[in-house]
Amino acid sequence: MSKPIVVGINGSTGSEAALTWALERAAQQKSPVLCVHAVDDRWMSPDFQYHELIRDSGMELLEKSKASAANQAPDVDVDVQLRHGSPGSALREASQDASLLVVGGHDKHWLDGGPMTDRALQAVSASDCPVAVIPSARGTGNRGVVVGVDGSEESLQAVAFAAAEADRGGDELTVVLAFRSPARWIERQLPSSGLAESIVEEDRIVLAESVAGLRDKYPDLVVNQRLETDTEPAKALVEAAREARLLVIGSRGRGGFSRLVLGSTAHAVLLDVPCPTVVTRVHKVKHED
Length: 289
Hints:
Layout: E1 5-8, H1 13-29, E2 33-39, H2 51-72, E3 78-84, H3 87-95, E4 100-104, H4 114-118, H5 120-126, E5 131-134, E6 145-148, H6 153-169, E7 173-178, H7 184-189, H8 195-210, H9 214-217, E8 223-228, H10 233-240, E9 246-250, H11 264-270, E10 277-280
Parallel strand pairs: 1-2, 1-4, 2-3, 4-5, 6-7, 6-9, 7-8, 9-10
Antiparallel strand pairs: 5-10
């Protein structure tokens, strides 16, 4: 049997959307689905009188999710699993035997980040497999796959994942490279340097190299290249993917620090997920400090 698609369940609107999306994907790929809920009992004493009540409540939540899944996708094999500890730790452990980890997106009503802290950011940072973050509300568009690139090894992994997804679904692939141009005061300090032009030309080459070989591997795939020369990468990706079926990004890029698992662009995108977004973790990449 193929590895399951693991879904983080916590009763929120986001986790319900994540389950629905995972079931649709599982039906297409004929994959099983595993619903995981974590009972965070780290602060409880074994003698705590409500311990069993909290555990039973967690199992009830999982059984409701299983019943909902049976109604939505009766042909998909769905199992449930109650784990103990922090949600991030539970999902990390579950990801070790998963083909994909699926969680709900950021709830903007929580001013402190709330469930985002427990689900998406922790899951993406620690997962051993790609992570899909699903927004609570579906957008109006559902065509095309968008992927962000910057020349890093992670972004090349993201392109490989996105191209396979687009080809499988008969979608066009849009490859986006974005950066903020040098401030004008910097340009004035470097007369006739051509700094901005050089950056644009270098990144145009990076963009072309990022899609090299896709035509040979996917002859029917339409690939669009998009270079944004004066936009923050996260903003450009969110805007480009507003009407997309899927956005794919690497966990971190060429500008990150080796000690940081999740890059600033990925972090910013996950706070404003425009559509189902996959953060790839195809294989670990070593970085120089």
